[in-house]
Amino acid sequence: FKQFIKQGLKADDLETMYADCHASIRKSPIKKSTAKVQPKDFVQKRYNPKKLTHSQRKANLKVKKDAILKEIRGDYVSEEEEEVVKVVKKKKVRQEKKKGTKKATDDEKKAEEEEEK
Q1: What CA–CA distance (Å, rounded) separates 65 from 111?
Q2: What SS3 state is found at 53?
Q3: Helix (H/G/I), strand (E/B), else coil: 39
Q4: For the stretch 67-92, what's the b/e string if a residue is b when 16 or more beta carbons lie within 10 angstroms of its beta carbon?
């Protein structure tokens, strides 16, 4: 009621205010649009990444798999593939850490040693 007092409305005025309001609603019950007009150069921000299609996800998985297999076989691994392998190993270490297994600490040490190289 603070706003009513601020606008100078008193208790006696409320009844007439609501009666006028209801009368105007009965007169035209369609809700009036209060949409804001946005500038033409407005670009909506995206806070979440765009979803990948099934084929894109499959392609990303194939790249990761190929990079790991190349490293295991001892083939030449490019810098990009090397980064992919590091990311995959770090994820695996985090997952193992969550499980609380001893293997997690061993893998973590190996990953840190490889990073130092």
Answers
A1: 18
A2: coil
A3: coil
A4: bbebbeeeeebeeebeebbeeebeee
CA dihedral 97, 52, 59, 92 (to 10 degrees): 0
Question: Are the beta carbons of 63 and 84 closer than 8 angstroms?
Answer: yes
Contacts of 90 (CB under 8 A, 6+ apart): 111
pTM of the model: 0.37
pLDDT in tens, 67-98: 888 878 877 777 877 788 788 878 777 777 77
Amino acid letter for position 19: A
